[in-house]
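Attaching the record inline, Q. Sequence:
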Amino acid sequence: MNVFCVGLSHHNADVEMRERFTGNAETDCVLRHSGCVEALVLTTCNRVEVYGASETRVSTLDIASCLARTIDKHISPDSAPFYRYEDAQCAQHLFRVASGLDSMVVGETEILGQAKKAYESARKSGAAGAYLHRLFQRAFRVAKQVRTRTEITRGSVSVGSVAVDLADKIFGDLAGRKVLVLGAGETSERTARALVSRGVTDLRVSNRSGERAENLAALVGGQSIRFEEWPSQCREIDILITSTSSETPLLTPENLGPMLRERIDRPLFIIDIAVPRDVDPSVNEMDGVYLYDIDSLQSVAQQSLAQRRQNIAAAEAIIAEHVADFGKLISRGLNGPSAADEHPPIGETPLRTQEL
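Structure, as predicted:
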């Protein structure tokens, strides 16, 4: 059985390229059309990856075709620079991803929760079988060891916190600034908490689900805004941070233009951390608007990387041990349990499926 990973991330594709392959990221599509026996799709703002197991080799372009948002007969290795890892290299890559070592913000912890959700979804649908079960359970254990045995998670360790770092650099002091957070998911919650920790007292939250917006606003001491009313907030806010799951841009020059005329020389800073993007890139060409997307945060993230670089070698050593053990397991075709899977390190408990 061939275990592999095919994907795009911030390392090899900009946000425009990643957008092309996030709209159809469903495991059942991959299973139906690629020939995988098992499949799991992991999609975040910085990556879209397929982990699969197959009896015969499944081509990278077949996987790319399954992920494409629109039918594209011209997908090629050049136009879609997917990376590919097989067997032990696949395990090493996933272990690094789950541990936060492959993230734009090295050491961030959001990716582990996202990987667990992707696994649980694939398990419930029957798309993840014995091979992906062993692979992902081991990845979760590796991530836990890296987090407990190193200090890799110190500093700004989420996309949301880096976005707030950027806003802080722009304004110097966030106290007194009016901020609207569009979206109420996990990333938005982390962003809202980071804003409050930096002194923001006028924090507004809007989401398609009014209940989720109200819950997040109450959690951070902010104000809930009805979703149909959020564009009008652009008349008075200083910062808009947006992270929704919309498939089309929510903010365009057409709907922003009338509100900018009422701002009277007050700049509007927009940080769009959604993929696909919530804000049309042409908005950045409008006078008085400064737009930053997820790729713009990389330079800010590099500064926090320097603080954790000394912990990376220790994390890589932990991963290397698990890769070697998992490689032996795969070579046996899963015949016989792995000692590390049956007997977790002292002080740790096994990660069972129902605990994910």
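The beta strands are 2-9, 38-43, 47-54, 83-86, 178-182, 202-206, 223-225, 239-242, 268-272, 289-293. The longest helix spans residues 298-331.

More tomorrow.
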